[in-house]
Amino acid sequence: MALIQTDGGSEFKDAFLARVTAYCDRHRVARPYKKNEQAYIESFNRTVRKECLGWRRYNATDLPSCQRAAEMFLERYHYHRPHLGLGLRTPLTKGA
Asked: Distance (Å, rounded) from C-alpha 87 to C-alpha 96?
């Protein structure tokens, strides 16, 4: 993955910043109050909550099951789930 874009939330500090380059070439923090940048992030966050994790709070002991659920969700989200903004196509196609 070439780029990961995040908002300026506290969950994207310290430990996240130390590891982000293992998953992408670049990390970009979206500028506050730029609705076009924040809208994509907030839309994705809402989708993850709605379709994967729900709205409850998790404990540290829930981390392994949350990671498995998130990985399965991302597989479906990128390769199988149609997106309205892409004309009901998927963002990625395996092998492409």
From this structure: 18
